[in-house]
Amino acid sequence: MRIKTISRSVDEFTRERSQDLQRVFHNFDPSLRPMEKAVEYQRALTAAKLEKIFARPFVGAMDGHRDGISCMAKNPNYLKGIFSASMDGDIRLWDIATRRTVCQFPGHQGAVRGLTASTDGNVLVSCGTDSTVRLWNVPQPSLEDSDFSSEKTVEPSAVYVWKNALLAVDHQFEGELFATGSAQLDIWNHNRSQPVQSFQWKNDTIISVRFNPGEPDILAASASDRSIIIYDLRMSAPARSILMMTKTNSIAWNPMEPMNFTAANEDGNCYSFDGRKDDEAKCVHKDHVSAVMDIDFSPTGREFVTGSYDRSVRIFPYNGGHSREIYHTKRMQRVFCVKYSCDATYVISGSDDTNLRLWKAKASEQLGVILPREEKKHEYNEAVKNRYKHLPEIKRIVRHRHLPKPIYKAIGESRVMNDSKRRKMERTKSHSAPGTVVIQPHRRRRIIKQVE
Amino acid sequence: MGGGLKRKSSSSSGKTLAKSKKKKGPHLPNSILKVIASQKQRPPLNSDDEIGSDDEHGGDLYEYEEEGVPEEESRKNNRYDRHDNYDYELPEDFEDENVESEDDVDGGNSENDEDDDRHIRMLQSLTGMPSAAFEGESKKSKPVLFTEAYPEGEFNPTRDVLEGKNVLTEEDFLAPLEGKPGYQKTRKQIALMRKDTKHHVVHAPLPKPQRDRLERKAVTGLVDGEFSKWVHLVKKNREAPTLYFNQDVDLGYSTVGAIASEFQPRTQFEKRMASVLNDSDVSEAHRDDGARLLKLNEVSMEDHIKDRRNHIAKMRALLFRHERKCKQIKKIKSKTYHRLKNKDLKNSSLGALMDPEMAKEEAMRQEVRRVEERLTLRHKNTRKSVKRVLRLGLNLKYDGPKAAIAEQLQIHANLSRKMNSMRDGSSSDEEELSDGSDEEDTPSRLIAKAKEKTLKALEDDEVPNATGLMSLPFMARAMKRKNEEANQEAKRAVEEYEEWENSGGENSKKTVNVSGRREFGATAKVEAPKESKKDSDNFYDNSDSDNGIEEEAVRDNASPARTITETEKSDDVDGNPASKTTFDVAMFASGSWKKMTGCKNTESKKASKKTHVPISQAQDKKGSRDDESESEAEEMVDGVLTCAASKETFEIPCQAELINRAFAGDDVLDEFEKDKEDVLNQEVPKPEKPVLVPGWGDWSSVQRKRGISKRMVMEHEAEEKERREKLKTRKDARLKHVIISEKVDKKAEKLHTTTLPFPHTSKEVFEHSMRMPIGPEFNPSTIVAELNRPEIVKKTGVIIKPVRFEEVNPNDEVDDEHPRNHQKQRPKKKTSRRQSKVNSK
Q1: Residue numbers in B near A218 (CB within 8 A)
Q2: Of B230, B238, B799, which has the smallest distance from its Cβ to A342's Cβ?
Q3: What totals of helices (H) and strands (E) does chain A contain, helices first?
Q4: How far is CA B725 from CA B685, B734, B742, in A?
Q5: Closest by alpha carbon to B36, among B2, B9, B64?
Q6: Among candidates B423, B450, B425, which has minimal Cα distance to B439?
Q7: Over the stretch A36-85, which tens digit does the pLDDT of each residue have?
Q8: Do A345 and B794 touch (CB under 8 A)?
Q9: What is the strand order of the sheet A81-86 is part of?
Q10: CATH code of the domain occupying A58-366
Q11: Which terminal residue of chain A has fewer beta carbons within 10 Å of its beta carbon, N or C?
Q12: Is ipTM over 0.95?
């Protein structure tokens, strides 16, 4: 007589501590689990829905300025600090955690148009339409910052007066140079009252400047003649210039890929360029319906955030044509500046309604301490969702966004216009001799020429 | 020469041009004018002639300024026109006419002295002035031979040199050096230099925009080069399955040493310690041999006295404080307070030491505890938990249980050894001091008490405490067993006590000598464990046997059932020949004979096998034929043939007829059509025919007469039409012998995409990537984390720095130990893993 019994060794099933997890044995034979795909699909669906449920990106607003925010700068060395400047010449340092002003930097007579901090976070550089460059010593954050009643004010450590109104400033990464944009591009040293170097090409105003974080000597600037110019500080001449159909409002270098940068354009699109090839953009990021005012890369280099004149903030993948996220609130007006926080977790936007807004970079991310098991669960949900993202239902849920009415309408209109343009182009092509009409891809269409 | 002529002609043309212009110029004295006039048509020789050369015709005296004529052409510079002098020999008569002119004398006869002499003489005769006056002139005019403004020199080279004739070369300079030590070297260097300068011609600088453009081009190239060095690193990062940004978290100190090195003394004590530790004298002494340490340790007499005094003062102060406290306590009148205080004192070991009675009591108590221990063996690994630990061997693995067990054993040893130790240790003083009676008294009392206790325990044991877990039957049984064991032991103990009591002091002493533990151990060993084992065995055995019986019963029950089902099955097989035949026909329709036969054979085989049991049942001919065919398993046709052969009169029909006959009864096509219609009806359902339902639309005779409403009929027709359309568009509409199902499984549909997603280029690859599940239920826990790892691992609150340049070898494979590799090349990885498993096996 043979009797089948279940035999288990006590060793394997005994927990050493009462908190230990019970050991569970699985037979991973796929023939025993025929429904695995359906199961995972269902989980993905649930994860997608949960993501929607937990999507609460808005963390808080920082109120205090008396005019529209014109520019911001993050402290590369201190996560909690962010500088903002407004059109009335007010500069403030905010504590993001408490969302209060830590101190103010009074001094500018007109609008502050450029703000940047040195890499060690000790020096703040501001410039504005009053033709001055001001350097400030940033107060060191201390543990006794908790008394918010007294807002400190700081006197500028240096004031350099210049010939023209200054529209942009950016600090070199781990160096002591900074560049300002006015009628020409000037390179300054902290300790000199005159620029150490100046670049002028084609008498046009520089409206934005950005240093390359990977290659500290290379910087890109955009001018009001619709051109983007790349300079190398070690050379006396500019390296490259691209002339586009519309003005570029801001430029951001990819911090992980020093040859690539993305330009925020007046036509509502962002164009990613390879610094070595200027005949076409690598990628066109479309979604905004109005001019893109500012752009900032995530420190991971995989995403960037844009603020637009259409009162919305969007987050794009670095190689994707459309945004993965749009943030908007009823009270947020034209967004003039955006920043991605140094730990790639938050996004800060400054808008015309005098407020800074703090958003989560991932709308449904769980904040606070996460237990390992929770983290595992989140990872699994994300992986499953990512795997089944092509399936219609999941795609629909993940992509669904509520849009403000004006944006929604504008998107519809632009779609109609683009369609009709495309149709017309196709018809023209089909009715003309082959080869005479060439439809340019969008990546190339908006570039007028490459200036040598 | 020719050049000079040309120049002249050009100059003349210039003059004609100039002539047309308004005349202007300085007012010249008459004598000069004369001289100038005399010079007409003569070529200018030097800069002094410049003015004169301008006017060919004597009338245009005011013209000296010429526009548009370069200086060289205007012969301001002598060097260009030397050869004109040789060439342009003026006719003698012409010369004679203009004797007054000095200049022409200069120019005309520069060559031979004879002419000069003649000329001077002539001048003398003409002017009447002494020849000396002209001598100077002639002397002055002598250098005109050179026709140079300045004497030849290094700053004013000769015409030959300038025109490339008779030029001094480096060789000329080198010639005198020949034979000198450094000659060869210098020559070579000079030759090299000449070679270099030959091809390099410096052009005039380009216009500025062009220059800038070139510069920008150069800069572009450099910047591109700068960017290009990043390509490999960027590519590696992009292809990496996971990028980690949480690595460089500074957690502060990593080691104890690091923390200790940062230590700063803050309190006074710490500072004093530090001062001693860091004292160079001490450390030096320590390093040497330690002999000096003692010296350093020496305290001076004064210090010693001071210390001593301090100590005494401190002790006094303490005493004083204690006294005051005692007084204070004495003053307290509360009785409860004192009672509690005394109790505390009693309980403390201090009290026991102080009070002999108390000590005695304490000893008694301990003795009782000891006896209890001996009875219950509570601390000798008899507890369930300890047993479990021992069984699992956890005490060997871990320190915690090990220590606990050791402690228990220690307690046990203490308790069971107490007797000796009491004798030996604590009561030794009494032994020495007092006589035996006192001693005797205590053990006897103790024994009595122990006896009493054991009896009480025995009584207590009778009472079953059946609550909770203990109420369970097997627990109760086990408890009972244990109790019995304990009871026996207790009884034995009581007997022993009695013995001791009877035997008296000496005996008791004797018994005391024998260690209690050994005794009990021996007795305990006698039966109890055996019994328990037996008991437990029996217990399990019983259950086992019960189960066995049951199982057997089940089997017994099952076997008839099984047989029954088997028979039923066989019946079914036999009783359903029709279904079988249809199956066969279907096989035939597919067109292969052999297959069909094979199938049929196997089928029939099965049938026959199962029909073994009901063989006694009545069988028709068909059944027997089946059996026959089963016996010749290979070919069915042959079997038929043999059958035919048995009937001798029958002729062998042709193949087609045979087939016809074989399938005479089955109308395959018809059946298939019916099937197809069923399928079609199922997939494209027929619309319902409108019918008159009683009670609906037949209220009045008019309605009834009208029949079914037109609308309904129309609708029905439309539906029919739609159905027809649908049927027409089906894939199998034109294929008579085929059914292609177009039913869509809606539940499965949601698991498929309509188009191939973007990054994938082929359907197979995409499906492959989706095939393996990634969940923890479907994968071992060792790889689940790797499968689910996100592309970016970052930590909130950690600042991410921009990329830093590092050399990356583009030919390197992406490092394999990287955990996320599984994700992207999952299918490949899986197979490889499996292969490796197979290999390892």
Answers
A1: 223, 226
A2: B799
A3: 6, 30
A4: 13, 13, 15
A5: B64
A6: B423
A7: 889 999 999 999 999 999 999 999 999 999 999 999 999 999 999 999 99
A8: yes
A9: A69-74, A81-86, A91-95, A100-104, A152-153
A10: 2.130.10.10
A11: N
A12: no
